[in-house]
Amino acid sequence: MSRRALLIGGALAVAWVIGAPKLLRMYQPEFAFEDMPSLPGFRSLGFGRGSGASAALIGIGDAETPEEARLRATLAERPCSAIFGPAGGNDRLPVAVFTDYYCPYCPEVSDLVRRLDQAGEVRAVWREWPVLGPRSEAAARAALAAARQGAHDAVHAHLMRAPLRPGPAALRALATDFGLDPERLVQDAASEEVRTQVDTTRALAGVLGLPGTPGLAIGRTLTAGRIPEDRLRRLIALEREGPACID
């Protein structure tokens, strides 16, 4: 083989090594969706249960108590309503965010979705899901109690950046900072109604198979963890092309 042929062959090999990954990416799907066997029409990005599992058990059979299993079964009957609640005439694509105030990526994801909501691009739905212990539970209850006085968004944004000290005194101080009724905030945070809201979100996360926070339900697409803005926008665009999430 001539020197020239060797040089040409070597150059082609180098070009293939450099260009092959880019070429392969061009023909590979951008998102590796997995169907959710227990939730027809829903799909996940990488954490969905395998299609070989029993659909009757997914999201229900691994509940910790019979009460939670019953709650999961009820939520699974109408998953869109359970995740997003009533649209109230808002036809924007709903994006539900499952957050814990002490998870490292929740503030970033929360800020991103809030920005898109304020710009009118999506309808943000906040799901308080305390998975990191008692402090997370207390913060979630505080945010849900603030919602009863119409201040969830402001308190949510605050708690994402400022840890809540334990005890009623901290709740009263929080209420004062946001112009809320301190005693009502303390009572609501300890109420059975707020506890039920937390338990319902926990059960809903189980139905969806979310592995942890932050979790996102973008229409019928489920994902979890940190997500760059451009990737989230592409998922939003894809969801808008499909049918709305209606039970």
From TrEMBL:
PROSITE patterns, alphabetized: GLUTAREDOXIN_1 (PS00195)
UniProt domain DSBA-like thioredoxin: residue ranges: 95-236
InterPro entries xrefs: DSBA-like_thioredoxin_dom, GLR_AS, Thioredoxin-like_sf
Pfam family, one: DSBA
Domain of life: Bacteria
Protein name, UniProt field: DsbA family protein
